[in-house]
Here is the input.
Amino acid sequence: RQLEMEAVSQALAVLSGDDAHDLFTRTFNPALLQVSSGSDDKRVAASKVLFAVASKFHNPRLSALAYQVKLDAFTRVKKAIDDMIEQLLKEKDDEIKHKDFCNDEFNTNQLQTEKKDRQKRDLTAMMEDLEMTIKSLTEAIDTLKAEISEMQVQLK
Here is the structure.
């Protein structure tokens, strides 16, 4: 028993300390407080009257109406939740479309890159062949010029 009292006093000391007070004032949001429940009281009273009449006359329709009146407070919440679900589903569809578009563009880009790389390799090989041809033709021209100059010397 003594241990319980010590634990409670320690808990009270922690909760009534300055740190706890500062934390409470930083996280306290007065907008979350319920200001009045006047319409809820009226709705509950109407529901009770309908239940009483329904049970007195054994009328299931009145009983269903009483439940509907009692649960009517949640219609706005249900509508807000349904709207949020609808919006999230729309966002999901949009994101799926965007992802598919990005995947298609990525694949197209990759194919174009592969084609350009292949074309670059082909052109590089062609350039090397042409450089070799130019080199061999230059050597042939030099050889022929040397032969021409030799023949001209022999003619004289």
